[in-house]
Amino acid sequence: MNEKSWAEALKPVKNISLDDRLFLVMRKIDKVSHIEVDQEKFKAHPDPEILWVCPAKVYEKNEETGECIVHFDNCLECGTCQVVNREFVIWNNPNSGFGVTYRLG
Ligand code: SF4
User: 37 vs 18, 46, 54, 85, CA distance in Å?
Assistant: First the structure.
């Protein structure tokens, strides 16, 4: 990519929601989740931070069972869940060839 192309790529895109931006992230989705949640520890936590800090809304509480639903295909591989809830989120790198492809590294 030449210098002008980089400048174009880095230009902010206006009038696009965060959800729409996240939709544009290129991913190759594996059939197997790279994220596991210890459901008992999740249920025992009064207010699991992953429900509100994950930028891709990977974690959702099932209000009927109290368990955590993991939408692993949305993961941006940012690592935030490993900082806030490492005690019950087991996050591994996606298998080789799968996961997010960032255009700018
Ligand atoms: S790595 Fe980031 S995007 Fe992926 S599940 Fe954890 S907090 Fe969410």
Answer: 26, 15, 14, 10
